[in-house]
Sequence to fold (255 residues):
Amino acid sequence: MRKKIIAGNWKMNIKPSETAALVKAVAEATAAFADKVEIVCCTPAIDVPAAVAAAAGTKVGVGTENCHWEDHGAYTGEISTGMIVDAGANYVITGHSERRQYFGETDETVNKRTRAAIAAGLTVMMCVGETLAEREADLVEEVVGRQLKVGLKDVTPADCAKLVIAYEPVWAIGTGKTATPEQAQDVHAFIRATLAKLFGAETAETVRIQYGGSMKPGNAAELLAKRDIDGGLIGGAALKAADFAGIISAAAAAQ
Ligand code: 13P
Fold:
């Protein structure tokens, strides 16, 4: 059985001085569900030390929103996986659509970041998802299939123990438009079938696939009830401990 994983993606929202209060509020509000659900806060890199300190002694994991593939060097503005590990975080997001859209992220760079994260022992949440134009042109499987095949090039079945896929339809992010549970399940099933082709059916059954895009306490239960929806990657609702906890409570009930 796949343990549900609910991760917050704080994006560029919470300051270092605000971080401890939010992490502590999340830990407190979700303590009752922490044995059933893996709970993560992915924060801006500059918030990580405060988040790690606040999460100490709780079951809340901490991650970053991106990583570079080189160990060190002249890459102004980037952070390495070794730095993330050294700071005490255990998770990282790669390939978020906002990185693809605004920062020139490609399937190839997502692949390099994803492999570096796995090699460093981080659990990586690799994001895939189509735009509205791609959905309307009936290209969902072509786009998501390519993002998976290229993004996971040279990743091995053994590496999949550290791999989570996040399906985030771009048209559902921050728009209040959620994919219906059926729309999401269809793509999640396609993702699992693609993972089965890449890594074998047995391994594919072990990989968790999160849904992301306007997930909230009010719609989480019906999404998380679907066979192949193993968690959520949460933007806006992760910034309020009560809302985030509402989603985590729905995940615990669905487990
Ligand atoms: P929202 O939950 O704000 O739609 O954001 C989803 C997301 O992009 C998480 O990575």
In short: The chain has one domain: 5-179+201-249. Residues 9, 96, 168, 173-174, 212-215, 233-237 surround 1,3-dihydroxyacetonephosphate (CB under 6 Å). The CA atoms of residues 130 and 140 lie 6 Å apart. The longest helix spans residues 181-199.
